[in-house]
Each structure stands twice: as structure tokens, then as C-alpha cells.
């Protein structure tokens, strides 16, 4: 199987992970969605020069990965795939902000470098939290939670179809690449004209197959609603989960925990 086929299967692994039966998997999706949103808001609300104050927030993804039995190497690989976007956003900060904030020995650390590291930390935390949410809950359950909170149903359906049709597109791309490899004896060279032609054919093939899939869904009684295996109900575990983590996020946001611990241990007041 070529790389496109492997990546398609890899994307679908999050649905397989969401079918687990741990305590976190059994929690109501709305509780996990609210907690994740509060976590993301708390992380992105920090000042651009914040570094040490963000570090305690790593407790949340580490705890959920451990308790949920999620493969950390799989999630790390997904974060690394999209990390160039965060790097592109902050890579010029050291050039634009050259004011020295502090020194490590004889080396001066500029504000641009600190803000660049802060962007990377916040990116890793927020993307990891979103991946953990889908891996513990499933994309359908997340969208159903959004619908329960009043998000318009047409937007939810479009979001679900967009997610599902990603698999259709990657499957069609896998077929086309395999067919070309068989006809060209696996030649690695491809002209720009052929590449553009393949992209156009891929779009047409994907639209045609998506239309056939939609008609098949309508024949089987699809009415725009996606049904979940687990029922959604807020109980005591959900309340404990939300209140505990949200309280911890508020504490981390309002207090620089590493700074206070350093002051307590060393006795040196900054």
C-alpha cells in the first residue's frame, strides 16, 4: 500500500481509539467538550512572553493520555505533522523583537525568541487537547455535543460530511496513484502537466463517489441525524471531571505555579 493509503488508515485510527471502554471514554461528550474548550481558552489567553506559567497545563494532556490508554507516539506524530504552521507564524519573531528580556549566563534571550517558544508551547497544548478529545469521544459525538449546545444543525452536518469525505478523497487518491504506478512501472517522475491533470480527475472522481454515497445513505433512511452508541447524560462523574479540571485551569491561569514553587524551594523572591 502506498503512503496515501497508509495515511488514510492512520486518520481513521482516531475513530477506533474512540471506541475504547475506559472511564474517560464513558464520560458524556459534552463534559469533555466543555473542559477542552476551557483548557484552550486558558492556554491561548496568556501573554506572548509567558513560558513558565504555561508549563503546568501539560498535566491535562498527560493525564488524559495515561488514563485513556491513548498511544502518545501516534498523537505526537499528528502534532508534528501540523507543527510547520506554528513555526511559520512565529519564526520571524526573533528578528522583529530583539529586546533582551533576561540572560542565561552570558547569553541574552530576546523577547522575540521567548514569544516564539510561547507560540510553540500553546500550539502543542491546544492541538494535543483537540486530538485527545476526538480520540476519547469520536468526531460524531463531538458534533452531537455541539448540536446539544445550540450550534445550527446545517453547520454540524456539513462538518460531519467534510470529515467523512476526507476518507473518500484519500481513498480515490490512493486508487489513482496506484493505477499510475502500475502503468508507469512505479516511475517516480511526474511532470507538472500530469500532476494538474491528476488533481482535476481526483476532484471529479471524489465528487462522483460522494454523490453515490449520499444517495445510498438516503436509500437507507438518512435524515440528517447521526446516532450514537452511548447515550448522553450528565452524571456525578461528569460533574467531578469538569469542576475538577476547570478549577485547576483557573488556578494555573491566575497563579504562576512554577514561579511560586521555585520561590518556596529556593527562598529567592524574583
Tell me the layout of helices and strands.
Layout lengths: L2 H9 L1 H6 L4 H4 L2 H16 L14 H10 L3 H19 L2 H4 L3 E5 L2 E4 H27 L1 H10 L4 H31 L8 H28 L16 H19 L2 H10 L4
State the gist of this model.
With 270 residues, the protein is mainly α. The chain is 71% helix and 3% strand. The mean pLDDT is 82.
Describe the structure in your own words.
The protein is mostly helical and 270 residues long. It has a domain at 3-151 and 231-266. 71% of the residues lie in helices and 3% in strands. A two-stranded antiparallel sheet has the order 1-2. The N and C termini lie far apart (57 Å). The mean pLDDT is 82.
N-to-C CA distance: 57 Å
Q: List the total number of helices.
A: 13
Radius of gyration: 23 Å
Overall outline: flat
Specify the structural class.
Answer: mainly alpha
Q: Which parts are unreliable, with pLDDT below 50 for 5 consecutive residues or more?
A: none
Strand order, main sheet: write it out.
1-2
How can the largest sheet be summarized?
2 strands, antiparallel
* Topology, number of strands: 2
Strand content: under 5%
**What pattern of helices and strands is seen along the backbone?**
HHHHHHHEEHHHHHH
Helix content: over 70%
- Quaternary organisation of the protein chains: single chain
Nearest-integer average pLDDT: 82
Using brief descriptors, characterize the structure shown.
flat; single chain; 270 residues; mainly alpha
Amino acid at each position: 500500500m502506498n503512503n496515501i493509503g497508509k495515511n488514510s488508515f492512520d486518520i481513521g485510527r482516531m475513530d477506533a481509539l474512540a471506541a475504547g471502554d475506559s472511564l474517560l471514554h464513558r464520560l458524556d461528550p459534552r463534559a469533555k467538550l466543555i473542559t477542552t474548550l476551557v483548557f484552550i481558552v486558558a492556554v491561548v489567553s496568556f501573554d506572548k512572553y509567558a513560558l513558565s506559567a504555561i508549563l503546568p497545563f501539560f498535566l491535562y494532556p498527560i493525564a488524559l493520555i495515561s488514563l485513556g490508554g491513548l498511544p502518545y507516539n501516534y498523537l505526537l506524530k499528528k502534532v508534528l505533522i501540523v507543527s510547520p504552521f506554528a513555526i511559520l507564524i512565529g519564526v520571524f519573531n526573533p528578528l522583529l523583537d530583539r529586546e533582551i528580556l533576561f540572560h542565561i549566563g552570558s547569553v541574552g534571550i530576546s523577547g522575540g525568541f521567548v514569544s516564539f517558544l510561547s507560540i510553540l508551547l500553546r500550539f502543542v497544548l491546544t492541538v494535543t487537547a483537540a486530538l485527545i478529545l476526538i480520540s476519547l469521544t469520536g468526531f460524531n459525538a463531538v458534533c452531537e455535543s455541539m448540536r446539544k449546545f445550540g450550534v445550527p444543525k446545517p453547520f454540524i452536518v456539513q462538518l460531519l460530511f467534510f470529515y467523512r469525505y476526507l476518507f473518500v478523497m484519500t481513498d480515490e487518491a490512493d486508487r489513482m496513484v496506484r493505477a499510475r504506478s502500475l502503468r508507469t512501472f512505479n516511475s517516480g517522475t511526474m511532470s507538472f502537466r500530469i500532476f494538474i491533470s491528476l488533481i482535476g480527475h481526483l476532484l471529479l472522481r471524489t465528487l462522483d463517489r460522494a454523490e453515490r454515497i449520499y444517495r445510498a445513505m438516503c436509500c437507507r433512511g438518512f435524515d440528517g441525524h447521526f446516532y450514537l452508541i452511548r447515550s448522553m447524560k450528565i452524571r456525578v462523574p461528569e460533574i467531578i471531571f469538569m469542576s475538577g479540571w476547570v478549577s485547576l485551569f483557573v488556578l494555573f491561569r491566575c497563579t504562576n505555579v512554577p514561579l511560586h514553587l521555585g520561590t518556596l524551594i529556593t527562598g529567592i523572591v524574583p
